[in-house]
Amino acid sequence: MIPDIEKASKTEIKAFQEGRLKILLTYLNKHSVFYKRLFNNHNIDIDDIKTLEDLSVIPTTSKDDLQQYNDDFICVPKKDIIDYVTTSGTLGEPVTFALTDNDLKRLAYNEAISFACSGINQDDVIQLMTTIDRRFMAGLAYFLGARELGASIIRVGNGIPELQWDSIIKFKPTYIIAVPSFLLKLIEYAELHNIDLNTSGIKGAICIGEPLRDQDFSLNTLSQKINKKWSIELYSTYASTEMNTAFTECEQQQGGHHHPELIITEILDDNDQPVGEGEAGELTISTLGVECMPLLRFKTGDIIKAHHSKCDCGRNTIRLGPVIGRKKQMIKYKGTTLYPPAMHNILNDFNDVESYIIEISHNTIGTDEILIKIATSEPSDILLQEIKDHFRAKLRVLPKIEFKNRKELQKLQFPKMSRKPMLVIDKRKW
Questions:
Q1: Across the 430 residues of the chain, what is the mean pLDDT of every consecutive 10-residue run?
Q2: In this structure, what DSSP letter does residue 273 have?
Q3: How large is the angle between the packed helices 10-31 and 33-41, nearest 10 degrees?
Q4: How many Å apart are CA 373 and CA 371, to the nearest integer?
Q5: Which of 200, 228, 287, 299 is 20 to 30 Å from 101 at the Cα level?
Q6: C-alpha distances in angstroms, 51 versus 14, 128, 244, 288, 408?
């Protein structure tokens, strides 16, 4: 199930997207209060924008715009809205997104081709280990995508290893969708209850929310710990509510594939200029085929690299590497530039580290400070020193580290109204 456009030449893909871009610009100019105002304020004639390169004349859109002018992005009458979702609010106040019936169909198509990208077909049974309620888009997208593909789906929801294993044993799913660190809890439960992981029938896991690979696509520490106990394929998928689109790994596992019929991508530097091929920059997207709240040149906040070589799976689209970090979470610490994922990888290397929070703040002279709070059942000076040594060896700097009570950390990780654990708390004042 590879769409023809994803096997086309680079030239054909570019021409196809430029045609879709023209449709998007015309639609926004007619229906979007926000973008009509932006075009007028900057004297932009949409007829002058004919190529992807011409996009550079249009100012970028940010999360701040969505928060400040949320309703101005809506392009349809309220009676046409079928579903409301909200972003997770990782770096600020959550943003509401509304979807029409056509948007839900597009979402289903996106997830169906994403599942197919990872080798899932209509004969498979998928167990969903993420929430489908609480205005969360991902769970809904997975459910709709499984229906579109023709696969079966078991909506267990997040958490509760006992219920997850009861469903695995009862319904025999072939794939699961989960946060990678939760797979470790499933492994722990299986070992405690004499469940044979490798005869469970699970072939693979579609993993969300946490990185699986290093920048060279080798398995990171968390993935290695999973595969050491459970011999299943791990597929990374990268998406957001704003994008209404997923970038999912194929069986080659060399980055998440771009779907050119659904989204235009740019990788931009701090001056909103395209970075060189192979260089990291901020992923900036324009959504195609979205009816209610389409976005144009929206800066996602994610620092990422694009890979342009043709994939052995037959797709000729670009592939996005693992997210290096969130732009607003970049840390300048003792002369070294850091992103939280690098610290996640180090902390995940220790089995005794049960949970943690990374707190970023400014000190009295305005420079960045890092405090890592760790929960462990057996705190000791030896463990603390081992963690410190690991930080020095891997990152060449040592943040402040202290042990905390597990319940205290849980309160920090799951603030009121939270739908997923917070691993980073940024206290800096910008």
A1: 91 97 98 98 96 96 92 96 81 80 97 96 96 86 96 93 96 96 94 94 93 92 93 95 94 96 96 92 97 97 94 94 88 83 87 90 84 92 92 88 89 74 80
A2: -
A3: 100
A4: 6
A5: 299
A6: 8, 40, 23, 15, 53
